[in-house]
Amino acid sequence: METIVSTNAMQVQTNEKNSAGVKNGFKQKIIIKLKVLRSKKTGGWYSAFLCLVNQGLATLAFFGVGVNLVLFLVRVLGQDNATAANNVSKWTGTVYLCSLLGAFISDSYWGRFLTCAIFQLILLLGLVIMSITSWIFLIKPNGCGDGILNCVPPSPLGTALFYLAIYLVALGYGGHQPTIATFGSDQFDEANPKEKISRAAYFGYFYFALNAGSLISNTILVYYEDGGKWTLGFWASTAAALLGLFIFLLGTPGYKYVKSFGNPLPRVAQVFVAAVRKWRVANVEGEELYEIVGSESSIKGTRKILHSNDFKKLDKAARVTEEDRQRPTFNPWRLCTITQVEEAKCIIRMCPIWLCTIMYSVIFTQMASLFVEQGEVMDATIGHFRLPAASMSAFDICSVLACTFLYRFMVVPLAGKISGNPKGLTELQRMGVGLVIGMLSMVAAGVTEIYRLKHVIPGKEASSLSIFWQIPQYILVGASEVFMYVGQLEFFNGQAPDGIKSLGSSLCMASMSLGNYVSSMLVNMVMTITARGERHGWIPENLNNGHIDRFYFLLFGLALVDLFAFVVFAKWYKGIQHEGSDESCTKDGEKDSQVLDKV
């Protein structure tokens, strides 16, 4: 009996040892797998490529709604040309204004990955509501809104749901775009020289992907929508957004993640408050200003920024006084670090450059409004086929795609040999060139309108002038985008401090936003001034009675004034310099001045 008991006890002990061994072995395997996962390289071109595909599909979905929106408002909701153009400008402006919200949340709280995912879900929700609303409430009878068959006036509920849907699309896409741009650039390490070059190339490919997506919207989707199949176009956009979200989430294990850095608003406010408190304190040299010890700045995870000599009054925020030394701990509303002060300076320095880009965005937004309305009253027939006016923007997209590669593989090497800059042209130089080309597009559009009016068919709204006369203005706008918008993305993302990178990328979209609002304001002002008494004004319901050519030339004149201001501020600008960085932004600024003097 005792033998049996002892044998059972031994078996129990053996089983316990085996069980413990299995558990330890299982734990060891998990630890090994975790180490392997941690040792695997994250980021790089594969992860960036997923971001590019995601951006292309999200853009396809967005422009499936946006590219023909002005015609939808006219044909389906029954709005006049001026009202429709203004509503599109306001909506587009809201899209890009939402980019500031997305960038702020990304940098401050959620991080870039989570922000991208949530705003894509909002975009998807808006597209679903848009598709269902047009199907059930707006497209009545079926096939209406094709320019021939009129739709039944929409119900208040249908109109309300439509506006809810398009503004959800605005919020979703607006918050997503600057965040995905920065998230994609995060996949490359700026400290690595090779990856730094890849990071610069990424922004060019990002704009390429954006236009590749919109090319499908502007050719295939716009064709079906123009033929009255609006609901089909909206459901196709919804499918593209869903596929884009799936591809984005597919890369989750391999992404390189950057944590949020906290709300930048208190950090910037602290600098101004501390500087005001020490307004009467004497200025000192940079070496005597306060900075924490170590490679990182006081903003955890960010690099230190070297001291600059402009805006010296703000340096007082980093001046250590006797009162500061007597305190047991430093009060951030009284004493700031050099990096914190320089972060505020960077924002101030970028503001004039950013303001000068708004006028270009006014030019750019004409492509989605007045260019389309102008094309609607031109001869768009090719045999028995009628080309949708909105599909002419395909020439803009093709111009962007072609000019992106021409710039990357021809202009950059040639300009690099001449200037000694491996980038070819600096970002500010590219932006200046883009503004000049944009101005030329307004001249081309104005000349086209003059000839269109000469070929008006008596008794009809249409002109016998071929719609292909619009090709030069679309090509010029496309070429200007490659210089202006890609230059903006690189400039604002590169010059923004580490703690507000997404906010830097969003400045490009915020410029588009204000450009749309300014365009809407200009249209209203022009119509108020020119449509007095019995005069029809420059942009009437029937464009044959107006003079949108004069509006185009007005934009050219305003852009010319803007160009002079841009050159002045570009020569004044001094770039950000991080501690331990081998790049000299000051030299780039000097090169900008030399080239801009010749513009």
TrEMBL record:
Residues spanning the membrane: 45-73, 93-110, 117-137, 157-175, 202-224, 230-250, 353-372, 392-416, 428-447, 467-486, 507-531, 551-570
Topology class, membrane: Multi-pass membrane protein
SUPFAM superfamilies to which the protein is assigned, alphabetical: MFS general substrate transporter
Subcellular localization(s) per the UniProt record: Membrane
Chief localisation class: membrane
GO molecular function, one term: transmembrane transporter activity
GO CC terms in record: membrane
Keywords carried by this UniProt record: Membrane, Transmembrane, Transmembrane helix
Family the entry assigns: Belongs to the major facilitator superfamily. Proton-dependent oligopeptide transporter (POT/PTR) (TC 2.A.17) family. Belongs to the major facilitator superfamily. Phosphate:H(+) symporter (TC 2.A.1.9) family.
The name this protein goes by in its record: Protein nrt1 ptr family 7.1
Lineage, top ranks: Eukaryota, Viridiplantae, Streptophyta, Embryophyta, Tracheophyta
